[in-house]
Structures are given as structure tokens and as C-alpha cells.
Amino acid sequence: MKKQFEDLKASELYCPRCKVAQPVRERLLLVLPHSELHEYRCSKCATSVGQREVKAPPSPLKVSR
Ligand SMILES: [Zn+2]
């Protein structure tokens, strides 16, 4: 069986401006030290409809109290 969810990301999100779910474009918004912030914009009106934080691979260094 093929995995279809390896690269899971939103392709359609509800756009408050269009009042319907629209295809979205993903763009890199911000690069943080341990993650990247991606932004989804409506492909029709370019309204920001969501964000996704992509975590960097877990560091082998374990921090415990
Ligand atoms: Zn829209």
C-alpha cells in the first residue's frame, strides 16, 4: 500500500474573504532557530488563511530539568 500522507499539507482552506474553501499557496514566512513558519494564502485573493509551523528535526541533545 502506498503512503499518501507523507507530505501532508493543506491544499484547500476556508477563506474568510471568499467565504468558501479555496486552494491555497504556501510560502515561507519566517525562519526561526528551531522551526520554520509557513503561511497559507488564498490563491484567489491572497488573504492569509493560515499558518503552519514546521519543526526542525529533533536535536539529539536532551534537555531535562
Ligand atoms: Zn480568498
Describe the overall structure.
- With 65 residues, the chain is mainly β.
- It has a domain at 12-55.
- Helices cover 0% and strands 49% of the residues.
- It contains no helices and 4 strands.
- The chain has strands at residues 12-15, 20-31, 35-42, 48-55.
- A 4-stranded antiparallel β-sheet has the order 1-2-3-4, with no helix packed on it.
- A hairpin with a 5-residue loop joins strand 3 (35-42) and strand 4.
- The site of zinc ion has 8 residues, from loops.
Structure characteristics:
65 residues, 4-stranded antiparallel β-sheet, mainly beta, binds zinc ion
Give the beta-strand count.
4
Helix segment tally = 0
SSE pattern: EEEE
Helical content stands at under 10%
Rg from C-alpha positions?
15 Å
Largest sheet: 4 strands, antiparallel
Determine the structural class based on helices, strands and strand pairing.
mainly beta
The assembly state of the depicted protein chains is: single chain
Ligands and ions found: zinc ion
Indicate the low-confidence ranges by residue numbers. none
What is the residue-averaged pLDDT?
Answer: 83
Distance between the termini: 43 Å
Strand order of the largest sheet: 1-2-3-4
Strand content: over 45%
Gross morphology is: elongated
